[in-house]
From TrEMBL:
<feature type="domain" description="DUF1308">
    <location>
        <begin position="122"/>
        <end position="286"/>
    </location>
</feature>
<dbReference type="Pfam" id="PF18474">
    <property type="entry name" value="DUF5614"/>
</dbReference>
<dbReference type="InterPro" id="IPR041076">
    <property type="entry name" value="DUF5614"/>
</dbReference>
<dbReference type="InterPro" id="IPR010733">
    <property type="entry name" value="DUF1308"/>
</dbReference>
<comment type="similarity">
    <text>Belongs to the UPF0415 family.</text>
</comment>
<feature type="domain" description="DUF5614">
    <location>
        <begin position="2"/>
        <end position="96"/>
    </location>
</feature>
<dbReference type="Pfam" id="PF07000">
    <property type="entry name" value="DUF1308"/>
</dbReference>
<protein>
    <recommendedName>
        <fullName>DUF1308 domain-containing protein</fullName>
    </recommendedName>
</protein>
Length: 290
């Protein structure tokens, strides 16, 4: 948000200031460069400058040409710019000047609508697959289990069903997972899963595409150097790094990993849902709520 006088902003952008003073154009370039270094959902965030006191038309066009979204009242330019004052023998400077001349002649929109960021690939973590096939999330949450954590999850499921959320999220998306995630999920199913849960797992397998753990190339430096400690387990690192390499949203209940990774300066595109365990095998020893 910028509150300076429109004339002062324009004068500063034309070099009419003391030595070393930085114009709004210089600041815009810094913000745009920073946005490229810190993408959100695999795209650089949009840079929005809001001018509460207004901005002159010529300067607004220049900012738009750089890729900045301009908000605020557009006022007529106080003086006509002589762009040729800035021509030099340097080829890059000459090219930039001519591009700017073209921008000033165009009736460019000053506040374009932001393109909707849509990612159609979902990377399923083990916790997401368990929540999807669990008996608890498929109409069998009316139990009091001997395990307190399962009883608590059943109560949460009655209040906030997870399966409808996942089904809505999965609709129209490509579902993938890495080999480690599927192999670990399969081991858990073979050990703890009931017959109905195993059937749902088979149906989920038909919707999934499984890739090798190293698919998608090499991890970038921050994710490669993510230290395995505390809530950052090796399996989770493999699953989330796989999702990042293929530019997918990782669906997981592992909020602990996401927070621990953020503390190390690493962010992931993730959809967090509530955790749900496999419960079909525990129903025989549980008390049913009528």
């Amino acid at each position: 948000m910028i509150a300076r006088n429109p004339k002062s902003l324009s004068a500063l952008s034309l070099g009419k200031a003391s030595y070393g003073a930085r114009s709004i154009l210089d600041q815009a370039k810094d913000y745009l460069e920073c946005a490229q270094l810190y993408p959100c959902m695999y795209k650089p965030p949009k840079i929005v400058f809001e001018f509460v006191s207004g901005i002159e038309k010529n300067l607004a066009f220049k900012l738009k040409g750089l890729g900045v979204v301009v908000k605020g009242d557009i006022v007529p330019s106080s003086q006509k710019e002589n762009l040729h004052e800035y021509e030099s023998s340097d080829e890059d400077s000459l090219r930039e000047t001519r591009q700017l001349e073209g921008l000033l002649l165009q009736d460019l929109p000053l506040s374009p609508n932001a393109e909707e960021t849509r990612i159609d690939i979902l990377n399923l973590d083990v916790t997401a697959m368990m929540a999807y096939v669990s008996n608890m999330t498929n109409g069998h949450c009316n139990f009091i289990f001997k395990q307190e954590v399962l009883t608590q999850q059943s109560a949460w499921e009655s209040e906030r069903p997870v399966k409808p959320i996942l089904e809505k999220l999965f609709e129209g998306k490509t579902l993938v997972c890495c080999r480690t995630a599927w192999d670990d999920f399969e081991k858990i199913m073979n050990t703890l899963g009931g017959s109905m849960e195993k059937q749902r797992a088979m149906e989920l397998r038909e919707k999934l595409t499984i890739y090798d753990d190293d698919f998608g190339g090499v991890d970038d430096y921050p994710r490669k150097m993510l230290k395995v400690r505390g809530n950052v387990r090796m399996r989770s690192k493999i699953v989330f790094n796989f999702g990042h390499r293929i530019k997918a949203i990782t669906v997981s209940a592992n909020e602990g990993f996401v927070r621990a990774a953020m503390q190390q300066g690493v962010n992931y595109a993730v959809f967090i849902h509530e955790s749900r365990a496999l419960t079909e095998g525990k129903e025989a020893s549980a008390s049913k709520i009528l």
